[in-house]
Amino acid sequence: MTSIKDVARIAGVSVATVSRVLNDKGYVGQNTREKVEKAIKETSYKPNEVARSLFKKQSNTIGLIVPDIMNPFFTELARAVEDMATKLGYNVILCNSDGDKDKEQAYLDVLKQKYVNGIIVSSNTLTALQVEELNVPVVSIDREISKGLPTIVVENKKGAVMATRFLQNKGCRRIGHIRGSYGVANAEERYEGYKEVVSKEPWFRESFIVNGDFDMQFSIEATAELLSLHPEIDGIFAANDIMAIGAMKAAYRLGRKVPEELAVIGFDGIKLSEVMTPELTTIVQPIYQLGETSTTMLISLMEQQPIEQTYYTMAVELVERKST
Amino acid sequence: MTSIKDVARIAGVSVATVSRVLNDKGYVGQNTREKVEKAIKETSYKPNEVARSLFKKQSNTIGLIVPDIMNPFFTELARAVEDMATKLGYNVILCNSDGDKDKEQAYLDVLKQKYVNGIIVSSNTLTALQVEELNVPVVSIDREISKGLPTIVVENKKGAVMATRFLQNKGCRRIGHIRGSYGVANAEERYEGYKEVVSKEPWFRESFIVNGDFDMQFSIEATAELLSLHPEIDGIFAANDIMAIGAMKAAYRLGRKVPEELAVIGFDGIKLSEVMTPELTTIVQPIYQLGETSTTMLISLMEQQPIEQTYYTMAVELVERKST
DNA sequence: TTGAAAGCGATACCAG
DNA sequence: CTGGTATCGCTTTCAA
């Protein structure tokens, strides 16, 4: 690999000068500049990013920590983050934490040791302290770590209210809820939204709510249980699309027709929701945009650019399809 | 951030000594070692990976270049690669090439500049020359770049033969094929497998094959076209699951019942295939294992360990579900 | 068994 | 406008 020294020697100048033309910084005479550029071309020289990083204490890399890239929500998010990062000159290191506290901390440590410029993270367990100790810009996505930290979330409660009302307007008399994991902020918010709409209904009882743990398999079981306990249920709001799909599968197995006998609505708007038969009605989040926004925000933070806003609550939208 | 110098100063030794205990290399007296370890603990010192990388010309990072992480096949692959890489002490930089030659080359360049230890890539356009010029270990996955290069693929042709025969055994009299993109090796191989089984059939004509471009939307259209041209078709082999799902959707829209009137079989075994209703019969590839194997192989290559084999053809398996 | 010092490949300050 | 050089943080001879 040719280094800056080689280029300098070939061009007959000092490394300082080569560095100047490389970074287009400081004065360089017209024809020395040309000599250098010629030498660069000839050797097809590419600066060593690691050496640069060592000096700059930045590696033009950002870390992305998600629970599991296999979750379609995070897949799309990752794609958006990577697209935007590349566009702005950064690479992204992918980290799957499985929501595990220790793994998260381990990733945080090595990312820091690698001089990443910033980190995008989706975590329930991370504390504000942990993040501040890092001394690296962090933006939290999908889940808030602390009010003070840069965060991008969506209108979870509002979306849940929309979903539940929608079911009512469609004529559902008894609406059940498959909730997400306990302790996960967005699961709680969606739960609250549902509750707000139905809590004053005379029929309502806590047993209309079951935990699906944001997992399809769990949701199938939870739905089966829910439906056997309350056969009168004619509408289900699931806290995410995966669970909604699970609910539809359970209904299918029990011989309950969707949407004729049972309406199902989800939350997220993952691609999968359009692929199902029947296609899933859902509260769609602007997932790709979440990723883009978090990345541009992170990069502004990293580059110390003036920043308008560090807490975004993105709007959600109800998309009606065939399952309701 | 505390550096090796700080640790040395606190422990009252030289940086060389600290380095020795850090890497457990060379002689270190028992009690100096203890002093150093104490200092490390106290300061919770973590070596700077970038400085290390500069010296070693390796960054403990591997690059993963895939066309698009949103394709479920690559999502699962990425997860496997990241899992195994982490287990062995490496991070992974994620790159989405969209199958674009220039993007691929750009990623290759910056990965090299970042001193990645190795690269896993899935590409149709990359040439053996490009890879050799890199001077970085590369393993090609899902698609062969050249016979000489480390590669992991699956039994595409055999799988296609299995799928087509299976349809015949299920009683299908006219079998159509939704093929993958032209010029993509695995699409061609699957096409050949199909052809091998049906080419001597009296009814067979080239028009029983349409191009779905490995895309769901394309497949929907292609299937509709195929079915209107040859309404007698009672079985479809799609070159991947996404397209098989597209075919089922098209059938659904045309009012053709799957599997009663039309049997559909896919290829890949993505998670999605189990989620569909009806669940998709498919040729499953050991996707996760592909990722694991490619990673361990790459790392063996990187670490110059003796390596048994550099060209794997993994077995596929027919999993019968409800769509046939 | 330990330390001094020469890199690794770039950047940026300070002279000239 | 250009060059010399210290520096980033770590590893590895080479001597002592």
From TrEMBL, chains A, B:
GO molecular function annotations of the record: DNA-binding transcription factor activity; transcription cis-regulatory region binding
UniProt superkingdom: Bacteria
A Pfam family the protein falls into: LacI
Ranges for domain HTH lacI-type: 2-56
Keywords: DNA-binding, Repressor, Transcription, Transcription regulation
InterPro entries membership: HTH_LacI (IPR000843), Lambda_DNA-bd_dom_sf (IPR010982), Peripla_BP/Lac1_sug-bd_dom (IPR001761), Peripla_BP_I (IPR028082)
Record keyword Transcription regulation present: yes
PROSITE patterns per the UniProt record, alphabetical: HTH_LACI_1 (PS00356), HTH_LACI_2 (PS50932)
SUPFAM superfamilies: lambda repressor-like DNA-binding domains, Periplasmic binding protein-like I
Keyword Transmembrane helix carried by entry: no
Protein name: Substrate-binding domain-containing protein
Protein species of origin: Paenibacillus lutrae
